């Protein structure tokens, strides 16, 4: 089935969506929507065969448009997604899906009522590295997950409508939601603002899971270097995912700690460190966003719910909301239902 896809918002992320949808064989036309004509002119110079609009209503009224991808600032996600769903369009929303859990849940309910696909653009979940890590975890290669430690730092890009938690930590929270079988129960978040910006540009999050495992996330717009590194520790093995490296992005270490009780001394616990080999699994080179765009259209054609659907997107928003509340309470613990 051929689709007409509309990309709303052609500033920072929108052109990437336009390019990837345009390259798919199952896409007939790509419609570009933006209030700023210069952005549309720039896209027309780089991508041939696109239809440009400065009015979103034109797309909503076009029955040939089956999918709407929203790549606007966060504050506009809910309004635009709701209008698209009400018009009978399948929707892809840039992360995070909404500025509040209430709005996210309303979009989920509306999509279910209309029997439409609602998908959240958590692109990192489609990277070949994360696909391989998910596969290893599901196969029990790491054992039970014990901790998740992430550093996602760089110089900029400062956002004007959200802080660094909603901008950068969203990636890691979506990864945690994808990889961990356990559920988050408590969140602590501390951060600071750098004048003259009104939003936090540095933050540290701790997320306690219901099985006792712990996730820690460091996000920062004020770093002199770019770091995209995740450490995941399991009871069998541990791994490091370094997205900045050109190759061997994932390294698995056969290292761990084993505990033994001395039968002769009941209160004595012996600790033995296990040090084995390191191996770097083969990682594919397919572009994550291209895979995600194709996956969306496959879900539409087959009528199946994507794993990164509105429900998973709402779980991410719930954690972001809890982190924001903790941030406003100077790092106080916030419980998740």
Explain this structure to me?
It is a single chain. The chain has helices at 14-22, 37-46, 56-60, 77-86, 101-114, 128-138, 164-179, 288-302, 310-328; strands spanning 3-8, 27-33, 50-53, 65-70, 90-94, 118-121, 145-155, 184-193, 200-209, 214-220, 222-234, 238-242, 250-261, 269-279, 334-335. By secondary structure, it is α/β, with parallel strands linked by helices. Strand 9 and strand 10 form a beta hairpin. Helix 5 (101-114) packs antiparallel against helix 9 (310-328). The longest helix is centred in the last third of the chain and has 19 residues, at 310-328. The protein starts with a strand and ends with a strand. The mean pLDDT is 93.
Instruction: Give the class-level CATH name of the largest domain.
Output: Alpha Beta
Summarize the biggest pleated sheet.
9 strands, mixed
User: How many discrete domains?
Assistant: 2
Strand order of the largest sheet: 14-13-12-11-7-10-9-8-15
Which structural class do the helices and strands define?
Answer: alpha/beta
* First-last Cα distance: 41 Å
